[in-house]
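User: Structure with magnesium ion, tokens only please.
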Amino acid sequence: ARQSGGHRRLRHFQRSMLDDARERVQLVSELRRGIERGELRLFAQPIVDRHRRVLGEEGLIRWRSPERGLIPPDEFIPLAEQTGMIIEIGEWVLDQACRQLAVWARDPATQHLTLSVNLSERQLRERDFAEQVRDRMDHYGVPAGKLKFELTESVLNTDLDRTIRLLSLLRADGVLTSLDDFGTGYSSLSYLRQLPVQQLKIDQSFVDTVVDNAQTAAVITMIVQLGRAFGLHVVAEGVETEPQFQRLAELGVDAFQGFLFSKPRPISEV
Ligand code: C2E
Ligand code: MG
Ligand code: MG
Ligand code: MG
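Assistant:
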């Protein structure tokens, strides 16, 4: 309880800091220094099937600041995107993820696991992104079909042709793609036909109300049918209760992620 109280104070402190331009500059320089000092940490949260067997993990970044404690991504990723630091952070996450997958590949107990990495739109726009990915995979010897990227629907709003080409290139190198927070974007469903993605990740806002809202259940049923029609794996995120899990399984969802199964923890503890 003491820890979560501290967290709340911290969040409030940082929100008010962001209001002030000078203090924002301060946070940016702390983050820059934090990156140099190796203060970023990769956490991971399991994704399970309907029998609760772990299929893979999602990497979730944290910043462990000596001054501010453990800072969640929502409090520094937007700033990192605005300043361009996201490129460097993204490279670090990709490197860590590939290294981890190579370690898992050597152990029969973990070699089946996939690892999902969240990408910002800005990373995808880097000219040599596909080459960077191939380079890290080759460097560590990552097997095909294990690295997965999570993109939000927003990446489909600009230069769809380029995104399609990039995802096809990645697919040819054995990298899978998932559409994160699915159902919250504004993009047309017709792009799904053209897009080389393999997974839809139903947003937590639908999971939150699936048990007692018939309209939510209808939306999830539609996403599941869409997934079947396009041959996509359908995952639900933010599953917190047993009734949510049961209902989602009844509706045909393939895989599940949430506090019900595990909170994110340091990836070394997987
Ligand atoms: P996301 O990819 O949609 O990740 C899901 C978020 O929901 C995570 O928050 C996770 O800890 C949280 N979560 C998981 N299960 C539950 C649950 O049962 N209940 C509740 N209430 N929450 C749950 P987190 O770790 O704070 O990450 C927030 C967002 O930050 C992520 O949303 C993702 O968009 C972004 N992010 C995280 N790591 C990275 C990264 O390495 N690079 C980039 N570009 N973005 C990242
Ligand atoms: Mg995600
Ligand atoms: Mg998500
Ligand atoms: Mg989300």
